[in-house]
């Protein structure tokens, strides 16, 4: 077990080193004052002295000079620490003093390894005051002042970097909020406020885009138009709230029975649309029938009396069979829907 003294004016850094060394079985004292540190060296004869080179009241360089030059003072091994910004100069000074060196903050494994290696070296011999003590201090002082200035500048740069990081985060948060606000505005522009489905504008824009893609790649495109039978009677008899409940339930029903790549929209009033890309005529017909049948079994109530049964009339048009453009396909689907209603409603027409 080694007897170690830690001299560092930074209490947080000092506590980290002390805890680490104590956890590995060492006897550790710590101090933040240079005069007290010298007193402890005299009284306790530590095996190792860990010194912060850039201590403000007495820099590590002057401290080591004073410790080395005091007659009869026990001479512990020395491990110097300094910030990365002054590593080259601090490492050279440590070497000149016959001391080990590590950068601070230090990786725990590296610090333990350096402490172990330093403790394995012979302890410096005790010596009397050298004839050139004054010249040694004269040499050290300007270097130490330079180290302190560099360390202070590094600390200032760290504060500036932290402030810059905070400003960058604020801008990222602002951009994130702006992006979400833009997305909300976009949703408001393309979504129906009652059902949450896409609106007529988005449907027609998407239909034109998908028709162009279908023409380019040679695949099919189907458009189904749905109309809630006798919807005006529900509205007039039970009120708009009941009508909205029916529209929401039909929209949810259509969404639940559509594929991920399909587009479900409220075309307006009591009309809905379902666009299916690259689906066969048979699949489209089956999907229309499934939605029609499932809508009839919807249970719509809530705060109202039980509403329904709800039936749907459906018209189907396909590109390129029923039109060579988006508007032609839309017109063909509307005409098919009209035929379904004229034939008695609650049916699918193509």
Number of helices, counting only DSSP H or I runs of 4 residues or more: 11
Strand order of the largest sheet: 2-1-3-4-5
* Poorly predicted parts: none
What is the count of β-strands? 10
> What is the CA-atom radius of gyration, in angstroms?
41 Å
Count of separate structural domains: 2
Strand content: 15-25%
Into which percent range does the helicity of residues fall? 40-55%
| Shape annotation | rod-shaped
**Helix and strand sequence:** EHEHEHEHEHHHEHHEEHEHE
What is the name of the CATH superfamily of the largest domain? Response regulator
| Major sheet summary line | 5 strands, parallel
- What is the highest CATH level, the class of the largest domain? Alpha Beta
Structural class determined from secondary elements:
alpha/beta
What gap, in angstroms, lies between the N and C termini? 92 Å
CATH architecture of the largest domain: 3-Layer(aba) Sandwich
CATH fold-level name of the largest domain: Rossmann fold
Overall pLDDT, averaged? 84
Structural descriptors:
five-stranded parallel beta sheet; 11 helices; five-stranded mixed beta sheet; Rossmann fold; Alpha-Beta Plaits; alpha/beta; 17% strand; rod-shaped; 350 residues
Task: Write structural notes for this entry.
- This protein is α/β, with parallel strands linked by helices and 350 residues long.
- The chain contains 11 helices and 10 strands.
- β9 (312-319), α11 and β10 (348-349) form a beta-alpha-beta unit.
- The protein starts with a strand and ends with a strand.
- The relative contact order is 0.08.
- The model has no long low-confidence stretch (mean pLDDT 84).
């Amino acid at each position: 077990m080694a007897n170690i003294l830690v001299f560092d004016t930074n209490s947080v850094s000092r506590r980290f080193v002390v805890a680490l060394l104590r956890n590995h079985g060492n006897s550790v004292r710590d101090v933040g004052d240079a005069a007290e540190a010298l007193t402890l060296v005299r009284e306790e004869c530590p095996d190792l002295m860990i010194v912060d080179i850039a201590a403000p009241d007495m820099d590590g360089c002057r401290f080591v000079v004073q410790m080395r030059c005091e007659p009869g003072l026990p001479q512990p091994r020395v491990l110097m620490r300094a910030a990365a910004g002054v590593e080259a100069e601090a490492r050279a000074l440590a070497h000149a003093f016959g001391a080990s060196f590590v950068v601070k903050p230090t990786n725990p494994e590296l610090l333990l390894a350096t402490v172990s290696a330093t403790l394995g070296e012979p302890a410096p011999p005790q010596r009397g005051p050298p004839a050139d003590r004054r010249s040694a201090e004269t040499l050290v002082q300007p270097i130490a002042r330079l180290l302190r200035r560099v360390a202070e500048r590094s600390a200032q740069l760290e504060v500036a970097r932290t402030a810059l990081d905070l400003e960058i985060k604020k801008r990222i948060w602002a951009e994130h909020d702006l992006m979400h606000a833009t997305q909300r505005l976009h949703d408001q522009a393309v979504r129906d406020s009652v059902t949450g489905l896409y609106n007529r504008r988005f449907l027609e824009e998407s239909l034109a885009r998908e028709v162009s893609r279908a023409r380019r790649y040679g695949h099919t495109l189907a458009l189904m138009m749905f109309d809630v039978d006798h919807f005006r009677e529900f509205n007039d008899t039970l009120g708009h709230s009941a009508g909205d409940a029916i529209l929401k339930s039909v929209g949810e029903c259509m969404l639940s029975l559509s594929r991920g790549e399909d587009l479900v929209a409220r075309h307006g009033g009591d009309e809905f649309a379902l666009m299916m890309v690259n689906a066969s005529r048979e699949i489209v017909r089956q999907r229309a029938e499934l939605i029609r049948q499932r809508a009839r079994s919807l249970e719509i109530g809530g705060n109202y009396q039980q509403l329904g049964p709800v039936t749907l009339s459906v018209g189907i048009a396909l590109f390129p069979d029923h039109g060579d453009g988006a508007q032609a396909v839309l017109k063909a689907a509307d005409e098919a829907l009209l035929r379904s209603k004229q034939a008695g409603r609650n049916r699918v027409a193509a």
